[in-house]
Amino acid sequence: MSATVPALATPRQAWWKALYAQVLIAIAVGGALGHFAPDLAVALKPLGDAFIKLVKLIIAPVIFLTVAAGIASMSSLARLGSTTAKAMGYFLVVSTLALVVGLVVANVVRPGEGMGVDPRTLDSAAVSGYVGKAEEQDLVSFLLAIIPDTFVGAFTGGQILPVLFVAILFGVSVAGLGESRNRVVEGLHSVSEVFFRMVNLLMRFAPIGAFGAFAFTIGKYGIGAIANLAALIATFYLTSALFIAVVLGMIARAAGFRLWDLLAYLKDELWLVLGTSSSESALPSLMRKLEQAGCSRSVVGLVVPTGYSFNLDGTNIYMTLAALFIAQATGVELSLGEQLLLLLVAMISSKGAAGVTGAGFITLAATLAVVPSVPVAGMALILGIDRFMSECRAITNFIGNAVATVVVARWEGALDETALTKALRPKD
Known about the structure:
disordered N terminus, globular, Proton glutamate symport protein, 428 residues, mainly alpha
């Protein structure tokens, strides 16, 4: 019997016992504490850090077991290539569209226009660390980093793609075992149930993690940081909301399901992502719920981890929008050719820094470096509000990958329609 995922409220369950309600209350209390007692709130940062570390502890084995078992169970390994190709094609089209949307909105709304910032007055040292990390990222080093130094190293490096690489090799190898394959697959399924029970256990601490993380954010940066650059923040949040509602909504509709139903099904995870500013905090639970919603284990195992590196819709919107905001704020007019160059570089840099801490800021630094007329020091303008924008990036990335998984599963004929309807529209 499969382990249950945490806490969708039932008619007989008190609303405050549902995970999403507990996380929402924790966010509200944490925000209030951060505003009225900032010193105490900042000191609570370890609560959020500890929860995210606990979740990261099980991400690698969950991905390995899900992917390996899914591939080993495939009747034909040709399907592996088909699923991967369709997923990467989807990621390329939708993530590029997100970059274009950010570029168009920045040109129409022009949130940085009229600020008249002198780049020489900016603190370039504040962003030097991000610039240094951006310079270390290139396509070759990124591809080589996918291959771990050792088998065990894939699980200790803290990156998703090496685990995915090892899991695919392991699954393909098991698939070729012949009659003994079923015993190995059964063992993988049994062990995976243990880890998903661990996920259920750790999710009980999600409200504490969300409380600590959100209290720290408000206590450290303050509500005033939002007011200083309200135009940029509002533009980014509204653009992301429109992208989710219009673009992802249309994709979902074309794939035969309603986006709102999917969001309601994943509300526990969405509030968790908001509270922790990390989409990784909800990754194991997302994989489990998508399986329960009818997506095959092999598709979930391939699409979700890969999407966390290659399908970052929120990060892509942020990169082009923030790059043009800095140009506008410092009085730099970019030609159409320079903007298209920014777009092309962003398509690559957003993949090259995948999985790196602070990836949104690092990829922005790498993107700006190709257009010398835009001062990289201008990133200091948005450094103080980046934390507030990270929540929106994480939520948009999370929703984008949930939609992508259901879509690819349908394309592959690996979607149980009955299970999907039961999960997304339980009252029907």
